[in-house]
Amino acid sequence: MTSKRAIQDFYPENLAHCYGCGAHNPQGLQLKTYWAEDEADTTITCFMPKPYHTAIPGFVYGGLIASLIDCHGTGTAALAAYRAEGREPGSDPPLRFVTAHLAVDFLKPTPLGPRLTLRGKVTEIKGRKVVVAVSVWVDAQMTAQGEVVAVRMPENFGF
Hints:
There is one protein chain. The chain is built from 1 helix and 6 strands; from the N terminus they run E-E-H-E-E-E-E. By secondary structure, it is α+β, with helices and mostly antiparallel strands. The protein has a single domain (7-152), classed as Roll (Thiol Ester Dehydrase, Chain A), CATH 3.10.129.10. Strand 5 and strand 6 form a beta hairpin. It is globular and about 45 Å long.
């Protein structure tokens, strides 16, 4: 059960407008979350900050980092929920998650310029809730980490 497509590619049309990961938001970040090939039960996404994502010259704005953790966390939750139910992403009913709680720890300034890599690990799945630990990396340096408590959207949400 692995797909070369990102979980966001399976989001229903009416639920694909998120600023962070919505395919139908051309001004958005366009995040794509995949299962990592190098580590079991880990998800990955990469993002290249633009010059306007600056906090102070040379460093990424912390709000952007929080947004990246948020959207990667909810994407990871969806992938994990499909896997836990033994289903392929995109099968009905669609599984889409929203953030109930977000915590971010900034460990060191994140340089502007290099590509950011986010890695997600599910720490809990219970009912409609999935808890995901997300780390932000620049090369071999972790610059931020966070926790996303994601909850499954009701089937009629957004319809």
